[in-house]
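Database export, one record per block. Field names are fixed; values are copied verbatim from the stored entry.
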Amino acid sequence: MKTLPPRRNLIKMNLTPMIDVVFLLIIFFVVSGTMAKREESRPIPLPAAAGGEESDNQETGKLAISIDAGGTLYIGSQSIPAEELKTRLLREKEASALPLEVRVRADRTLLWNQVEPILILCSEADIANLSFTILPK
């Protein structure tokens, strides 16, 4: 009787799915880090308050509106004229698959009558989820 040579079962590991997952994670963290930086790209001295709470609602689309000491409006890092804000809010609301949350980042030296028009425009655009970014005391 003839004996067969021992058979080697070489196990080959397919690394393609693992590489795909790693690349997806890298892309996720790069994009999310970029979005977080864009919101705070304008250095604005924020007001301080004792009663603030952390926003952890993940089920909303977020839009940051910043107002510097001169009253210039920014969405993210892009300057926007005050006349175009309502149109932009409506466009962002329709483009968002989730309910839109607007975060207002206002300079601490601004008076209320300089911030109030933004709140009125959000109300006219039917955006009810509105918050102010503050520093804790």
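Remark 1: Helices lie at 16-39, 85-95, 112-124.
Remark 2: The CA atoms of residues 89 and 122 lie 7 Å apart.
End of record.
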